[in-house]
Specification:
The chain has seven helices and eight strands; from the N terminus they run H-H-H-E-H-E-E-H-E-E-H-E-E-E-H. By secondary structure, the protein is α+β, with helices and mostly antiparallel strands. It has two domains: 47 residues; 156 residues, Alpha-Beta Plaits (2-Layer Sandwich). It has a two-stranded antiparallel ribbon with strand order 1-8. Strands 2-3 form a two-stranded antiparallel sheet. A two-stranded antiparallel sheet has the order 4-5. Helix 1 runs antiparallel to helix 2. The protein starts with a helix and ends in a 16-residue tail after the last helix. The N terminus is likely disordered.
Length: 234
């Protein structure tokens, strides 16, 4: 969809949606209002500033504080907006080409479950399963994907215990959350947010190294005792 056509689509539909939201709010139908809000938010996909997102990613990469995606599903209505946003960033428009997946536990009345990378910081199964170096550890947890090194072996998909690594047949590559935070901007109920991650492991290692060095310098050197004349050596 061209930028000009996208802009016209947004300009035409947004006033109509605003009017519908007003009418529905008067009738008190909250659920339908929420769905219209989802549609309105999704229209932002075609008009948001790509330059702004690029700058935001550069700021996050250069930031000293790493972030990771977190969620609370209590207010989730299963609109799949987050999945569609993620798919759009990959140049697709399908729930199967997304790094975040929303599903039910079973039944129409059960709460929703979010399947997405949890940003492992230790024992990263998908990274350890990768034999070509296509995955590397990401600051703050999780991994970053290098398509040029991927051989489509799908070992990373099998390695993830929670099923957060999807494989796209269309893109012929694994799809793993990069924790870029774009999906958080489009969730109508703010179920998703970015959490700052302190590099606890590095701090602990530094403290342990300092404690070890201190113990070496402060501990007395054991004296060597020599037997006196007439005493037998043990």
């Amino acid at each position: 969809m061209s930028e000009c056509l996208s802009l016209k689509l947004s300009e035409c539909l947004t006033p109509i949606l605003n009017e519908c939201l007003t009418l529905i709010s008067i009738r008190g139908q909250t659920l339908i209002t929420t769905h219209f809000t989802c549609i309105k938010n999704f229209l932002k996909l075609f008009t948001f500033d790509r330059v702004e997102i690029t700058r935001k990613k550069k700021r996050e990469v250069g930031s000293t504080v790493a972030k990771r995606l977190r969620y609370n599903m209590n207010a989730c209505i299963g609109c799949q907006t987050c999945s569609l946003v993620c798919s759009t960033l990959l140049g697709q428009h399908s729930l199967s080409e997304s790094a975040i997946y929303i599903k039910t536990k079973g039944g129409l009345q059960s709460p929703y479950v979010c399947v997405v990378c949890v940003a492992c910081k230790e024992n990263i199964a998908c990274l350890e399963a990768c034999r070509t170096g296509a995955l590397r550890a990401r600051p703050g947890g999780g991994v970053l994907f290098d398509k040029s090194k991927c051989i489509s072996c799908r070992l990373c998909v099998k390695a993830c215990a929670i099923g957060a690594v999807q494989y796209s047949e269309k893109l012929d590559q694994p799809v793993i959350c990069r924790h870029c935070g774009t999906c958080t901007r489009f969730c109508p109920h703010q179920c998703l947010w970015m959490e700052e991650v302190e590099e606890i492991a590095e701090v602990v290692e530094a403290i342990e190294a300092e404690a070890l060095e201190t113990s070496k310098t402060s501990s007395p050197t054991p004296e060597t005792t020599h037997p006196k004349e007439g005493e037998a050596k043990s």
